[in-house]
Design a protein that fits this description.
alpha/beta; Arginase, Chain A; 8-stranded parallel beta sheet; two-stranded antiparallel ribbon; 9 helices; about 20% strand
Length: about 280
């Protein structure tokens, strides 16, 4: 058997959560290396106990479908969309490990529903029109998702770094935002601002965490979130999550694998919370 996440099977007909690796990082703009993240996160998961928060995860219907081909952007997005579409088609939830943040809009489109909301846990607004002429840059995913779903269905939590032009436009069009500084004053503000009714696509950029918890990311920003806050958001949304990703883990920038390990524990928490809600 290959080293799958927590030794889950590679294919499971009745899977309800399907783990997919998306090792693409050529839309990064600062530090490259997130293409190594899926395998690094899997490696760290193998040292975890499969009993998480009192639930034996190894007994749950979860599969690990391995990595998407990443030879070039076109081949990568076609393979990613095909895998996500197949997973959704059989009634499973895609849990994707990036890669940089440019993968998220591709997954949202592949899910194929326009009645969902995106919740992004992120240090950055990521609402640029383009970066250095690249409309697929990891600084643009909220813009691309808003074009597909509408700005009213985008929520960004934990931001503390943004271009003035993008922030002014985001405020003007009404994107739901909670800054890290607002969260420091009252974390309940972030929970209260989460979508209440719609199904949700959750994307977690590891730079949302303070670098003291997650140094291994491409664009670290101080004054960030704590792991417990991220878990609270996962737990709150889990019953309505129709897709999730964790992106921007950059193993070459990490310290003793702690960022990959934290990402693996976030995935375990999602699995626990999702099945606990059923």
């Amino acid at each position: 058997m290959k080293n799958t996440f927590l030794f889950f099977p590679e294919n499971l007909e009745d899977a309800k959560i399907s783990i997919i690796g998306a090792p693409y990082d050529l839309n990064s703009s600062r530090r490259y290396g997130s293409r190594f993240a899926p395998d690094s996160i899997r490696k760290e998961s193998l040292d975890m106990e499969s009993n998480f928060r009192g639930m034996e995860l190894s007994e749950l219907p979860v599969e690990d479908l391995g990595n998407v081909s990443a030879d070039n952007w076109r081949a990568f997005t076609e393979d990613l969309s095909e895998k996500v579409g197949a997973v959704v088609g059989k009634g499973s939830v895609p849990m994707t490990m990036g890669g940089d943040h440019s993968i998220s809009p591709e997954i949202v489109r592949a899910i194929g529903r326009k009645d969902i909301s995106v919740v992004a846990v992120d240090a950055h607004l990521d609402f640029d029109r383009e970066l250095n002429g690249n409309r697929r840059s990891h600084s643009t995913p909220r813009r691309r998702e808003a074009e597909f779903l509408g700005v009213e269905n985008i929520t960004v939590i934990g931001i503390r770094s943004w271009p003035s032009e993008s922030m002014e436009e985001a405020k003007k069009v009404g994107i739901n935002m909670v800054t890290a500084f607002e969260m420091k004053e009252s974390f309940s503000t972030a929970v209260d601002r989460l979508p209440k009714d719609s199904d949700v696509y959750l994307t977690i950029d590891m730079d949302a965490l303070d670098p003291s918890y997650a140094p291994g990311t491409g664009t670290p920003e101080p004054f960030g979130m704590e792991p417990w806050q991220v878990i609270k958001i996962i737990d709150e949304l889990a019953p309505r999550i129709v897709g999730m990703d964790i992106v921007e883990v950059c193993p070459p920038c990490d310290v003793n694998g702690i960022t990959s390990s934290l990402a693996a524990h976030f995935i375990a928490d999602f699995i626990f919370s999702y099945f606990s809600s059923k």
